[in-house]
Every structure is written in C-alpha cells, then in structure tokens.
C-alpha cells in the first residue's frame, strides 16, 4: 500500500500522524483509534463529567481503576511516547509498571504491538 486512497474520484493522502489503537482485553470498551498529531498530548483518564465522556476518539474511559488524569501519550519526531501522570493504579508497558504509585514517570517510547495496561483490577471486600 502506498499511503494514499481514492474516495469519490478524489485523491487523499493517508494521515501522516501515528495512530494509537486501544483494544480492550475483556470487552469493557469499544476499540479506540487516537490520532497523535505532532506534539499534541492526548490524556488518558477516567470520566469525571460531560467534558470527559468516553468517545471512540478520546482517551477517557468509564473505569474505577483509572485516575482522573492517568497518563498522556504524544508523538514527537515520528516516535510515540507515554508517561504516567501520578496514577494510583499504574500504567504498565509490556507488563512492567512505569513508576511507583502517585509518582510521575519519565517518558517511554511505544513500539508497534506493545501491550499497554492502565490500572489494575481491584476487588472490594465482597469479591466484586
């Protein structure tokens, strides 16, 4: 594929920004594809109101394991980076936590097919 497509007879250039695709491991949300424009920071976090309502094009989720502002992802010089923003339940890259609880991490480069997990499952005293 050459990175272009034709729609209704017009030639369109494929997006030049990287796309972060977030897929659920347990059907808790629909797949999200987030375009990462150069130097624009995309926040990952928990829904707290109308402005942060989950949508396929944003990084907000209806999840109790996420902090309000959990992490951020961005593109710089054709590379994609992630940083944990002092979350309680952690951000995990390929199974490794980026930083201790309530500590801001350094930035980490993301590569194609990396596994990202935001938060850890927590149980209440009834096992729910």
UniProtKB/TrEMBL annotation:
Coiled coil (UniProt feature): none
Source organism superkingdom: Eukaryota
InterPro entries in the cross-refs: Cent_Immune-Sig_Mod, FHA_dom, SMAD_FHA_dom_sf
GO cellular component annotations of the record: cytoplasm
SMART domains in alphabetical order: FHA
Domain FHA residue range list: 42-98
TM regions (residue ranges): none
Pfam families listed in its UniProt record: FHA
Signal peptide: none
The protein, known as: FHA domain-containing protein
Organism: Modicella reniformis
């Amino acid at each position: 594929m050459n990175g272009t497509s034709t729609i209704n007879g017009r030639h369109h250039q494929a997006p030049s920004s990287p796309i972060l695709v977030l897929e659920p491991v347990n059907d808790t949300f629909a797949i999200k594809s987030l375009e990462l424009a150069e130097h624009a920071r995309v926040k990952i976090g928990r829904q707290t109101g109308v402005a942060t309502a989950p949508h396929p094009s944003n990084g907000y989720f209806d999840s109790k394991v996420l902090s309000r502002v959990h992490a951020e992802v961005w593109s710089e010089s054709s590379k994609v980076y992630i940083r944990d923003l002092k979350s309680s339940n952690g951000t995990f890259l390929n199974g490794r936590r980026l930083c201790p609880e309530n500590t801001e991490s350094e930035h980490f480069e993301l590569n194609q097919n990396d596994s990202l997990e935001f938060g850890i499952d927590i149980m209440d005293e009834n096992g729910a």
